[in-house]
TrEMBL record, chain A:
It comes from the Bacteria. It comes from Gimesia benthica. Residues 305-319 have a biased composition (Basic and acidic residues). The keyword Metal-binding applies. This is DUF3341 domain-containing protein. InterPro entries: ActD, Cyt_c-like_dom, Cyt_c-like_dom_sf. Residues 351-443 form the Cytochrome c domain. PROSITE patterns: CYTC.
From TrEMBL, chain B:
The chain crosses the membrane at residues 26-44, 50-73, 93-113, 147-165, 191-214, 220-241, 262-281, 301-320, 332-352, 364-388. The lineage of its organism: Bacteria, Pseudomonadati, Planctomycetota, Planctomycetia, Planctomycetales. Keywords: Membrane, Transmembrane, Transmembrane helix. The keyword Transmembrane helix applies. This is Quinol:cytochrome C oxidoreductase.
């Protein structure tokens, strides 16, 4: 009580706005040992008080029962949070994987439970842990930086060797006189009252200054970001982690410090063949030419010219037609003057003929027809549907095609011509030659004089369907 | 080491003998079902295969319980646990089950030594000659080395189980706290030995049934299964013994609560390991790994697999989580029995679908379940009877353990 008067005495000197009537917050009783505290706790519990607490330097077994504390509801909070986490995880994944951005990954179903389990587990655990941590803080009314009990000098020994029981004045059963008598009847060392603060404590000047400074400093990153977003700079952005942004790209004909010889272009490694150069060992076989022309690009340029001309053509048919024809004629000229091979650059066998027939039927016959007259099923259907962009494929039996050397035919299959795409990437050179062989046989079959055939052959032709 | 001030206080020594001869008689009676299962195996179509696999399943089901007990005993010593002292002796008794299992597993080893390929394809030279992968694995998976490993595994386990029981029993006589220190010091290396032997035993005896498949987590899977089995059996034993008036004073609801917590925790651990194994295989979708799950999703095994997911994990997770379930001896006992059955289904699911590699239909069938249940009860009878026999006349509590007082006063906060 004496201490309390002292506070009241000092209060009067303070300015009026800080003055508050002191209020009795509760009673504090001190005990010497845990047993007497337990004993007292049982009595307080039985007396029906609800808002009171005990303070001990170490956990005391059985104090919960002595105080009549109900088992915590924390597990339910944790369970609810965990379930929420699991539900969020599974609905989030359902929405992301099956609704918002459906994407097939290794043939698994769009929404697949096994894939969801790790995230479900993680989020359930995370939210359960949050529930446990914040739920514990909330149920214990923490963090609490200050409690009026701390003003008691005696209470300091609560962390050392004394046991305390505090009665809260907000308890409905609390009354200043009766409760005081009751607490005294518990045989404590002594009882004291604790009162509310009569002034709202002021923050120390330095702390205020420090906090405002910190607050201003905290604004700076935001201000900096806002400033940078609204200005333009010529400087490259700051690379905290450069990743692979800066790489030593090498250019032709330059020097470098990376390699010992200072050359950026690397010389051929002895005993190796650069990609593609092996073809130069067998030009007739790979190009259908006797020798490669001086200007090696002639072949590819001719092909590119045609492709460009085709691209220009679409829709507005008439005016482009002439130009197209010109380009084609120019390409024809260039190609016709090349030294095409006239003999097969590989041995011609029955097997090769059979292979050529098979490949021809797979790749060529759909447009050119089984007989090579340009009446394949695709063509017939396109004509039937009157497709404007469809160009009827050439018949092999025109003089123009018949005159072409085998090398030229091989080149056509490899690189394509007009609407026909290049088949080089799909068909290996051996098969292309086989197709040329079969094609030649087809041409020959259309130009045979009946007189040159024997009777046997004539009969065979008549009987064969 | 500081001894408790009343370590020499007179505590009444109780033994399992007080249960009377009935439990032993019942256990021996049950063991009759093992020959019955054998005869059933001769009667049914493909019965020999069914019996062989069932026998392996039964022995490794019981063995897993003993190994779980052994781990529990060692980990309590390693962590200097005080709460568990009152129930440690029961665990030590359960770990003695490795002794009958050593005998019961012997026929399996002998069978493979003769080159019989009923269980292990790699045991027959003929199969190995036709199979490149088996040839590559032959330096490890061959009959001689297999038998040697069998000896190493069981010798280690029997040694460990007997070491911890004998030292503990010696302490009952002398009350010497040095023995506790000795056990603490030995438990570290002992756990290492245990971890390696258990992992490789699981690889050898169960995983190599399908010698083409491999999973590095399999040893942990078997370990997790064993601990679920052990804590179930421990909970059942404690509730049973207390109902018979044994350990009634020392083992309180607090101890039961902790056994329940560990049972629950290791059940979740089992689920975690199981999903880890499944998920990796599911994600990667590599043919040689998925061969394990394919037979377990067809021919009725899909139902068993789902039963494990829901019955072994989901249902106990929801209903066994509550504190009340673990503190009530009746509900604890219920969940312990339930999880023991689920653990049995788990080992059943691990072993039986491997029948597919014997060229027969591995579908879940009535003869399969009948033979397996008979076999398990039979082997279980021998298992329990031997443990009762070996633990007869011994105190069911380490009466002079220096931490006994702490255990007696144990209280969940």
């Amino acid at each position: 009580m004496s201490m309390n008067k002292e506070i009241m005495a000092t209060t009067i000197e303070h300015p009026a706005e800080n003055k508050v009537e002191p209020e009795l917050l509760g009673l504090l009783a001190e005990f010497n040992d845990p047993e007497s505290l337990m004993e007292a706790s049982r009595k307080v519990r039985d007396a029906g008080y609800n808002r009171w607490d005990t303070h001990t330097p170490f956990p005391v077994h059985g104090i919960d029962e002595a105080m009549g504390i109900k088992y915590t509801i924390l597990p339910w909070i944790v369970a609810a949070c965990g379930l929420t986490g699991g539900t969020i995880a599974i609905s989030m994944q359902y929405w992301m994987n099956a609704v918002d951005y459906p994407f097939l990954i290794s043939g698994k179903p769009l929404f697949s439970i096994p894939a969801c389990i790790p995230i479900m587990f993680e989020l359930s655990v995370l939210l359960a842990a949050f529930g446990a941590f914040f739920g514990m803080l909330g149920l214990n009314q923490l963090p609490k930086l200050y409690n009026p009990i701390f003003k008691s000098d005696a209470f300091r020994r609560a962390t050392n060797d004394r046991f305390f029981l505090s009665m809260d004045a907000s308890d409905p059963k609390f009354s200043e006189i009766d409760t005081g008598e009751f607490v005294k009847s518990l045989n404590p060392n002594h009882v004291e009252e604790f009162w509310s603060d009569v002034e709202s404590p002021k923050l120390p000047r330095n702390l205020k200054l420090g906090l405002s400074l910190f607050g201003v400093l905290m604004l700076m990153p935001i201000a900096l970001v806002a400033y940078k977003r609204s200005t333009v700079t010529d400087n490259p952005r700051i690379h905290i982690i450069p990743d692979m942004d800066f790489q030593p790209y090498l250019k032709a004909q330059n020097t470098t410090t990376i390699f010992g010889d200072g050359r950026e272009m690397r010389p051929h490694i002895p005993g190796t063949i650069p990609r593609g150069q092996y073809k130069d060992d067998n030009i007739p076989f790979y190009y259908g030419l006797k020798v490669l022309p001086e200007d090696q690009d002639v072949i590819t340029i001719a092909a590119q010219d045609e492709a460009k001309a085709d691209e220009k053509k679409p829709a507005e048919a008439k005016p482009a037609e002439g130009a197209n024809a010109d380009a084609q004629a120019a390409a024809e000229d260039k190609l016709a003057s090349l030294p095409w091979v006239t003999e097969f650059p590989m041995p011609v066998t029955d097997k090769m003929m059979a292979r050529g027939k098979e490949r021809y039927r797979i790749y060529c016959s759909v447009c050119h027809g089984l007989g090579g007259e340009g009446d394949g099923l695709v063509t017939l259907r396109a004509m039937d549907l009157q497709q404007g962009t469809w160009v009827r494929p050439a018949s092999y039996h025109t003089d123009n095609v018949r005159k072409q050397p085998v090398g030229r035919l091989f080149h056509t299959i490899t690189n394509g011509v007009r609407k026909m795409p290049a088949y080089g990437p799909q068909i290996p050179p051996e098969d292309r030659w086989a197709i040329v062989l079969y094609l030649k046989a087809l041409q020959k079959s259309h130009q045979v004089d009946a007189d040159t055939l024997t009777n046997d052959e004539k009969r065979k032709l008549r009987d064969t369907k | 080491m500081q001894t408790s001030h009343d370590a020499d206080k007179k505590i009444t020594v109780q033994t399992l003998d007080e249960l009377g001869p009935l439990p032993l008689k019942i256990a021996l009676g049950c063991s009759v079902l093992l020959p019955v299962a054998f005869v059933l195996g001769l009667v049914f179509n493909h019965g020999w295969d069914l019996f062989a696999f069932s026998y392996l399943q039964s022995t490794f089901f019981c063995l897993s319980i003993s190994l779980g007990a052994l781990f529990f005993v060692m980990i309590q010593q390693l962590t200097r646990a005080g709460w568990s002292v009152v129930l440690r002796r029961i665990s030590e008794f359960l770990s003695l089950g490795v002794i009958p299992m050593a005998v019961l597993v012997l026929p399996i080893v002998l069978l493979s030594l003769t080159g019989n390929d009923t269980l292990y394809k790699w045991a027959s030279a003929e199969n190995v000659a036709q199979d490149t992968l088996l040839q590559h694995k032959a330096p490890y998976l061959n009959n001689g080395f297999f038998a040697i490993r069998y000896v190493i595994y069981f010798a280690s386990w029997i040694f460990l189980a007997r070491f911890f029981l004998n030292k503990s029993l010696a302490q009952d006589e002398s009350g010497d706290p040095e023995l506790t220190l000795l056990m603490e010091r030995r438990s570290g290396p002992a756990i290492l030995l245990y971890a390696f032997t258990l992992t490789f035993a699981a690889f050898d005896f169960i995983m190599s049934l399908d010698a083409h498949w491999f999973s590095t987590i399999f040893g942990v899977y078997y370990f997790a299964a064993g601990l679920v089995g052990f804590f179930s059996v421990l909970a059942i034993s404690l509730v049973f013994l207390r109902s018979k008036g044994l350990l009634k004073e020392p083992v309180t609801v607090e101890h039961l609560h902790d056994v329940g917590k560990l049972l629950f925790a290791f059940n979740c651990f089992w689920a975690y390991i199981a999903i880890s194994q499944y998920l990796l295989i599911w994600y990667a979708n590599i043919p040689e790994e998925t061969t394990f799950f394919l037979p377990r999703q067809t021919n009725g095994w899909g139902t068993v697999s789902l039963m494990l997911v829901i019955g072994h994990f989901a249902i106990p997770f929801v209903f066994f989580m509550s504190r009340w379930m673990k503190r009530n001896p009746k509900t604890l006992c219920f969940w312990a029995v339930y999880l023991l059955i689920m653990n049995w289904v788990d080992i059943f699911w691990l072993v039986m679908p491997n029948l597919a590699f014997d060229g027969m239909d591995p579908a879940v069938s009535f003869p399969m379940i009948l033979i397996n249940v008979c076999c398990t009860i039979g082997v279980g009878g021998i298992f329990v009877a031997t443990i009762l026999k070996l633990s007869a006349g011994k105190s069911i509590m380490p009466v002079r353990d220096p931490r006994l007082e702490e255990s007696l006063e144990f209280h969940n906060i």
